[in-house]
Amino acid sequence: MDLVYNPWPWYVSGPLIAFIMIILILMGKRFGMSSNLRTLCTICGAGKQADFFKFDWKSQKWNLVVVLGTVIGGFIGANFLSPETAVAINPSTVSELHTLGFVSAGEAYLPTELFGVEVFSDIKTLALLIIGGILVGFGARYAGGCTSGHAISGLSNLQLPSLIAVIGFFIGGLFMVHVLFPLIF
Amino acid sequence: MRTLIHLLIGIFFGIILFKSEAASWFRIYEMFRFDAIHMYGIIGSALAIGIVSIKAIKRFHVKSFFGAQIVIEPKERGFKKYLLGGIFFGLGWALAGACPGPIFTLIGAGFLPILVVLVSAIVGTYLYGILRDKLPH
Question: Which residue of B has its CA nearest to A4?
């Protein structure tokens, strides 16, 4: 059982993610998480403001069910399958994070500096989460997909647009971590 | 029945994202610093199997579980929207430390502040829908 309770190594997790994609394809569907955000906009009535949201959201209900499962899976993973949730990142990454002020590095699943409940009363951290979220939603729809739709599904189908998108993901991510983080934190 | 299968697929996916630590902000940060193979190994091994499987599905005209033809539509051609959209996404991915799948996983795992990220991501999607005609594609 330790195999289940310990963090899953990449050579187990990666093939399992491929399995999820393949099983969805064999169900006649496709693997893509961010399109659910568009569906949620449509359900909230965004079709009145932009044609982009005018589509029959019921055709995407299956994907919302997958998302609901993903939430439940997170609950099960965190509460029943993980006696220890600290993420053992590289010690040099830990010390780099310590200099940035992330003292929870190496001792938690998420940095408490960003995801502890105290952030609800901390304007700066709250703003960072809001900006991060807006960028994720805006960018995913602009690029037509996120990690699951482009980096996994699109590249598996050898799609050049997905390669361009993934290169973009890395340009943005590297700029954020190496240039902006030292200014922000 | 199909709904139940979709739910089970989602549950398994959520467990994988949590247990693989792909939903951890720390792993994303570590990836962008090239400090570990972990995230590259996850994406790389998923791709290796994904590429072979999709080739096989196409080559052998594999039908879906329900007997239908499987059509994997190619992505629309384009450059600017993929690069620019990708850059915006990457900035957010590194800052929030979560892409859309893990956002949902982390809600289930009980991290309340991730709800702020989810609502903001929906707002970001909405902003794209509103600004779409003014953006280079």
Answer: B19
